[in-house]
Structure formats: structure tokens, C-alpha cells
Design goal:
Blueprint (H helix, E strand, L loop, with lengths): L28 H7 L26 E6 L3 H13 L6 E7 L8 H10 L3 E7 L16 H9 L7 E7 H13 L7 E6 L2
Parallel strand pairs: 1-2, 1-4, 2-3, 4-5
Helix pairs in contact: 4-5
């Protein structure tokens, strides 16, 4: 049994989209990538979290920070924002090894092009990024502060998702950027 984040909007359809990273030594992820086929029955349990929901009545900016497959619940939130036709300023700071490794990369770039209130910043750690709005290093406090400055005012909601070490670094970066600890919500996975 494993916990996976839902990437689909709650408004989208009856289909639940999960982003499951294949881990070579994983006990469950290889099953989904190599063995599972359409029509297989998979038993699901209810959600374990609760605070990673798009703030439906948000009027102040929202900051999302994620790494790798930690973008899955953030993607669900962005899709929900789109489905609600909200225009609250929103920024996503997303860390990935390479441009090719960015989950939902095409969709995120299209969203940024279509929505002037959405800002995407990639932190590419193992190659030089192509876009001038992206970074070539791991997420740090200076980077978080720079992305916050791209918003019209301080965010009222901050959501951080990734591995334990990543979440610690990103949340610390948000605090050092002047964000109030009360607005920062975190979701952690792995060791």
C-alpha cells in the first residue's frame, strides 16, 4: 500500500489522475508502470491529507513550490483554479533535474502562455535552463524571494510539496523571504 497525490482537478471528470514516479527499486511503482493494464481493479482509500486544496475564494496571490512528483497536488490545484476561472495571481516554483524531467511541463508552459496571472519558474538542477525566468540551481531563499517578487503582493497562501529535505529547504526559504509561517502548508513524502 502506498500514498500517491491526485493530479486531476476535482471538477474534471470521474477519472482520477495519479502521478506515480517509477522507482527502480520500488515495491509498488514498477507494478503501475510495467504490469498494470486498463481494466485492472485497484483498491483506493480516502485521502490522507486535507489542507492541499485550492483556496476557492482566494483574492490574494498564491505561491506553489514543488519538486519532482511533488508537483502532482499542485497541478490538481492549478487545474481546479482554471476550472473555476479564477484569476488570482499565482506562481509555481518547480524544481526538476532537467527540462525533460518536468512533469506536466507542456501543460504548465501552455498555462503560463494563456494566463497572464500565472507565473512559472523552473529550478533546473542538472542542466542550464533555456528560459531567462528559470534558475540553474536548487531552490533556496533568494530564489523564493525572487519568485515572490514576481507576484503583485505577498501571497496569502503558500503550498510546498516534495521530499522531506526539499520541503524543509523550501519552507525555510519562504520564511526567509518574509512569508508568515501561518500561511505555509506542507506535504512531504519519502525519507
Amino acid at each position: 500500500m502506498r500514498g500517491y497525490s491526485i493530479a486531476s482537478s476535482p471538477n474534471a471528470s470521474d477519472i482520477i489522475e495519479l502521478a506515480i514516479e517509477r522507482l527502480p527499486d520500488g515495491e509498488v511503482s514498477p507494478f503501475f508502470h510495467d504490469i498494470a493494464v486498463v481494466g485492472d481493479e485497484i483498491e483506493l482509500r480516502g485521502p490522507l491529507g486535507g489542507h492541499f486544496l485550492w483556496p476557492e475564494h482566494a483574492t490574494a496571490p498564491v505561491l506553489l513550490i514543488g519538486a519532482g512528483s511533488g508537483v502532482a497536488p499542485l497541478m490538481a490545484m492549478l487545474r481546479h483554479r482554471r476550472d473555476l476561472a479564477q484569476t488570482v495571481p499565482t506562481a509555481l516554483l518547480l524544481s526538476s533535474r532537467t527540462k525533460h524531467d518536468v512533469l506536466f511541463g507542456g501543460e504548465l508552459l501552455a498555462l503560463e502562455t494563456a494566463d497572464p496571472q500565472f507565473k512559472l519558474a523552473l529550478a533546473i538542477t542538472r542542466e542550464t535552463p533555456e528560459r531567462p525566468t528559470d534558475f540553474a540551481r536548487r531552490i533556496d531563499s533568494a530564489m523564493v524571494a525572487e519568485v515572490v517578487a514576481r507576484l503583485p503582493r505577498m501571497p496569502a497562501h503558500v503550498f510546498v510539496c516534495g521530499s522531506n529535505p526539499f520541503v524543509n529547504a523550501a519552507a525555510d526559504g519562504a520564511l526567509l523571504a518574509g512569508l508568515d509561517a501561518a500561511v505555509i502548508k506542507t506535504e512531504r513524502y519519502g525519507g
